[in-house]
Specification:
The chain is α/β, with parallel strands linked by helices. It has 12 helices and 9 strands. The longest helix has 13 residues.
């Protein structure tokens, strides 16, 4: 199978920045095992017949996470599929920022605005086992994934989900508010796999990508409990303008960078 993995990776080079990883994930999916189990125990197995069709889907720019139906994030794994934003490793920066802010303390109530498949909320609840959380999203497709992910992780009693338009209609206050809003400008170029497959409503936010920050940030003060913090994901060029919106709203702002040393999250207090 080693030769088949090399050939599969070579086949995927035109459409992927990580062809070897993609090939391994697709091979493991075809075998019905995890990538780790495949590498440890199944490299001598016959090449599965299903691999060819999986490679064809990837060559058509379908994201690997949609093909396999799974995506790892932080310490959890989430079910994902068409209609939901695929979790990115860069978004783990928000969890890291929250952990640094709270230190030995723990947030009791967590709000995730634009929760998608439950990404940030469920990762935070995994980090703080005593916390309760609410995820809000405008997409019923995303909320269905979020509820199923909460159940699969044994968190259905701690995580509630509801449809909504950011914080509108919420009366409760939260110790931690997380949000990964749309922040792509409508004229920006995107990779084919993103542009063709992921939901535009979760990506685009006006010409500058700032429209949703202008709606979310002014509403945060009333939603934050005393001593609480909000952490927002930003595009790597947006630290200046989003920080300005936050400071104009009376917030102190701390910038966090992702693993690539790019601006990625703002902590507001």
């Amino acid at each position: 199978m080693g030769g088949a993995l090399i050939e599969a990776a070579r086949t995927l080079e035109p459409v992927s920045d990580s062809p070897r990883l993609d090939a391994e994930l697709l091979m493991a999916h075809a075998l019905g095992v995890s990538r780790e189990a495949m590498i440890l125990r199944h490299l001598g197995d016959p090449v599965p017949v299903a691999l060819e069709s999986l490679l064809a889907r990837r060559l058509a720019h379908e994201p690997v996470a949609y093909i396999t139906g799974r995506r790892a994030f932080w310490t959890i794994e989430l079910a994902v599929g068409p209609g939901v934003l695929i979790p990115r490793p860069d978004s783990e920066t928000l969890i890291e920022a929250a952990i640094e802010y709270f230190g030995a303390r723990a947030p009791a109530r967590i709000l995730d605005l634009g929760t998608g498949p439950g990404t940030l909320l469920l990762a935070a609840l995994a980090e703080w086992p005593e916390a309760q959380g609410l995820g809000v999203d405008a997409s019923e497709v995303a909320l269905d994934y979020a509820r199923r992910n909460a159940a699969a992780l044994g968190m259905e009693s701690r995580a509630a989900f509801r449809p909504g338009d950011w914080g509108q209609g919420l009366a409760a206050r939260f110790d931690l508010i997380l949000a990964n809003p749309p922040y792509i400008g409508t004229r920006e170029d995107l990779p084919e796999q993103v542009r063709r497959h992921e939901p535009g409503a979760a990506l685009f936010a006006g010409p500058e990508g700032l429209d949703d920050y202008r709606r979310i940030i002014p509403d945060l003060r009333r939603l934050l409990a005393p001593g609480g913090a909000a952490v927002l994901e930003i595009g790597w060029t947006q630290a200046g303008p989003v920080s300005a919106i936050a400071r104009n709203g009376g917030f102190a702002v701390t910038l966090y960078k992702d693993l690539g040393e790019r601006p990625r999250a703002l902590l507001l207090t």
